[in-house]
Every structure is written in C-alpha cells, then in structure tokens.
Backbone:
C-alpha cells in the first residue's frame, strides 16, 4: 500500500488532536460548563442517594430535563424476579427499537431524565426508544446493572414485534450506558446465541475498568470527569473479588466476533478517549464494521450539553441509527 493510500485509510488524523483544532465556540462552552460546576460537591462526599435526590429535585448542577407527554413506563421481569422499569417513547409506527442505556458511572442518572434525547431520536430515526432503569451501585454493584440490561434486551428480542410491531433492534448509550451496551451485546451473543442487533451506538464508554492510559494520565479533577471520579465509580460498581479486566465487565478484553456495526463517538479531551480508540480498533480487527467519530475539544458527555459540537455529534448518531432501519 502506498503512503497516500495508507493515509487515506487511516481515520486518525493527527490534526484533530491539536489545540488549534478546537473551535472558539467549544472552548467557550467548556469554560462555561467548568464555571457552572465549580464548587459542586462530589457524590462520594455527600453519598450517592443524597446526590441523586438533589439532582432529581433540580438542586444539582444540571437543570431538570422536561418530561415527554407521550412517555410511558413498561416493566420487564429480570433475574430473581426483579422488576425493571423501562421508559418508552414510541411513534405510531416504529421502524425499529433503540434500547437506550443511560450514563452516570453506574452510580448516578436515570431513564426518566432521558426524554429530550429519546424524543430527538424518535423524531429523527422513526424508531421507538426504550431506556432501561437499571439498578445502581454502590447499593447494587456488578452484576446487577449488567443483569438488568441483559434481561431487557432478551425481553425485547422475544417481544419487540408484539410490543412495537418490529423486530429491528439497535442498542446504545453514553458513558456507563455505552459500557453496559457493549457488555449486553456480548451477553446476548454468548448466553442466548443472538447476534441480530442492527447497530451499536457507543459514546465515550469505559471499556476497561483497570483504566486505560488516557484515564490514568488525566488530572484528578477534570471537566465533569477526572481520574478520581473514574476511580470512585469503579470502586462503587466493581466488587473486590471481580477482576477489572473480566471480559464481562470490560469489553476491551472480550472476543468481539459477530458484533453489529458500531459508531464510537468521543471528544479529544475526554479522559475515556483511549477506551473508544482501543475498542474501535479491536472491533474492526474482529471483522466487524465500525466508525470512529472524533470531536476536537469535546469533553466527557459533550453531546449532552447545549453546544454546536454536541449537536454535530448527535446528528451523526441519529443518521447512523436511522441507517439501521433501512
């Protein structure tokens, strides 16, 4: 292969990672977010329940997300008879079902705060969205969140046609949601022989709980997520007797054959940058299709913030998911 051909086939353009690639709009948005969260307590200092309660009442650093009038909740029975709520927003005639898994380090967040995102995806893809209200750590560490997501995915494989009029399934999420999405795909393949997902939307997940270089080299206190917060989240969801490199926990160490096409979205300033770079490479090396979407200056969860860079990323995510229904 010639140098020109090799350069053309390489999606990793060094220019994307240079400070000069970051727009003034992105720099301003990052600074505004930094100021808005400055002085906010850390969840491990106040306790996860108190932090969640403050967020749910609008006393956290983020405004309350508006609720959709057409959202409803269905209940799926999980392992041991556990009841799993699933937040559903669906069009009249769904072209597919997007299993959404929310972020929050497996400690924070909820399906009930995802309505604006789900509404956007329903509008732009024609799919029904089903967001899993999985159990949270530290009260419910591994494998509880993993089990809940697996149970919902299995239920939708069996009941999607009856519930939504379609058997087209996609899956994805942000941060911890991407982590759990990758693990759910592996469980469905290995435990149930199901490899029928049409697409996986994997946005800035933690795919290595033993910490990739970009995680370990990030400052203790980062923009939304830093080295210490990553460590605290991992301590909360991972029991001491479970290896952080267990393939069921960290997809980077799993066999990745027979996975669906995946879109890996990540900002260049995200401490979890390497996780997406590494899993993207392994996804392709296992013979799967994958896209890598890199965003200069994007911090963790940048596409959940009101900034042009986030809108750009969301437009590509929606287009990627829509293609899965064709």
Residues:
């Amino acid at each position: 292969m010639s140098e020109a051909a090799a350069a053309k086939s390489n999606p990793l353009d060094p220019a994307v990672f240079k400070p000069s690639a970051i727009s003034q709009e992105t720099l301003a948005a990052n600074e505004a977010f930094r100021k808005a969260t400055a002085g906010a307590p850390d969840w491990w200092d106040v306790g996860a329940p108190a932090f969640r309660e403050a967020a749910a009442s609008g006393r956290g650093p983020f405004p309350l997300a508006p609720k959709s009038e057409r959202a409803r909740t269905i209940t799926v029975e999980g392992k041991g008879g556990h009841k799993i709520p699933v937040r559903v927003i669906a069009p009249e005639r769904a072209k597919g079902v997007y299993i959404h898994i929310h972020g929050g380090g497996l400690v924070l967040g909820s399906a009930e705060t995802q309505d604006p995102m789900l509404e956007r995806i329903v509008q732009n893809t024609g799919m029904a969205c089903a967001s899993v209200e999985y159990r949270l750590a530290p009260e419910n560490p591994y494998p509880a969140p993993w089990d809940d997501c697996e149970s919902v995915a299995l239920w939708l494989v069996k009941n999607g046609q009856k519930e939504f009029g379609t058997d087209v399934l996609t899956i994805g999420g942000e941060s911890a949601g991407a982590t759990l999405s990758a693990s759910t795909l592996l469980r469905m393949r290995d435990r149930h022989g199901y490899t029928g997902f049409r697409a996986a939307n994997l946005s800035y997940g933690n795919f290595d709980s033993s910490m990739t270089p970009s995680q370990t080299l990030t400052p203790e206190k980062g923009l939304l997520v830093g080295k210490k917060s990553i460590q605290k989240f991992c301590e909360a969801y991972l029991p001491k007797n479970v290896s952080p490199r267990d393939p069921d926990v960290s997809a980077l160490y799993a066999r990745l054959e027979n996975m669906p096409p995946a879109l890996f979205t990540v900002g260049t300033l995200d401490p979890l940058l390497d996780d997406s770079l590494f899993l993207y490479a392994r996804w392709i090396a296992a013979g799967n299709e994958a896209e890598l979407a890199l965003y200069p200056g994007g911090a963790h969860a940048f596409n959940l913030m009101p900034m042009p860079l986030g809108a750009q990323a969301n437009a590509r995510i929606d287009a990627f998911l829509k293609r899965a229904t064709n």
Q: What stands out?
A: The CA atoms of residues 53 and 59 lie 8 Å apart. The radius of gyration is 19 Å. Residues 1-8 have pLDDT under 50 and may be disordered.
